[in-house]
Amino acid sequence: MVTSTSALCSDRAAVADPAFADAPVATSDEPGTRGRLVIKDRAIAKIAATAALNVPGVVPQGGGLTRITGRDLPRADVSTGAQSVAVNLYLGVQWPCDITELTQRVHTEVGRQLEDLTGMPLHQLGVLVAGTEYDGSAESVDPLEPMPAATVTPPLPPTAAPAAVPAAVVIAIGLLALAVVAARELLIARGAFAAAPWLQNTFEWLGRLHWQQWLIPVALSCLVVGVLFILLALAPRTRTHVAVRIGGAAATVWMRPTDIARMCSARASTVAGVVSAHTTVDRRRVTVRVTADPATTDPTPGAVDESVRAVVESALAILDRPLPLRVKVRTTRVRASS
Question: How confident is the model at residue 325 (pLDDT cuts 50, 70, 90)?
């Protein structure tokens, strides 16, 4: 206690001494000695969202639960690096509008604001339109009026599952089995239970393995399987539907081969004298097999064939890719009365 009091008194005396009061105080104006500036991602996101609102056509959207969950529009996801920043920006826009022109203006405005206010250049900006707001002042469009063919973007046609799916399933099952074996080895190593380790024995067996004749077919089999997996991964998907083109517009409707077969059978069944009709559709042709009743059928040779062909071809005319038609007619046999 005595020592501390003496030190305190000595300090007070030093402050009261005029010689100490007149002594210059060392100061430094170097920027490096003032600390460092840290800009949080949240602040950058707020700058980006505010800059986007300055662009005509971008509108705020939110309220209710979206305000609580932080899903208001516009909002931004920010990733900052050492010298630059990347932003994913979610916007609400007025509709109709030119999305291309709007996104270009957003890129320009957000990049300028971020560089001016933070000093970091914009490395990447992804703009995602997450909401629209109808502009009632814009010219109304009749929803029943067909769109011009030039404004319709052709969608991708339906295709089958990739050919590599079976190989991917086999590989996934193998990886799951390997994970189970690895977990078993870990439990054995930790002493959870006593059992013979599989991986250790396997690796020891491989380490003692030398060249033998059976390794040749194994190596060739691995080569064939590897090439097969590559071919399956690169194989294009098979188209499963046939496009329907109406009015010369882009194809937006497709029919399954089963639906085409049912349509052809239904049309063929309307021909007079046809008892039943069965249709098969493949990639090359449409085959219609009809059974005709000789009692009610036109006796002229080929009459039923021509009638069925006429009604079925009119139904197939809606297909974008014409399929050759083949008609097979079979007459029912009349049983003789005993």
Answer: very high
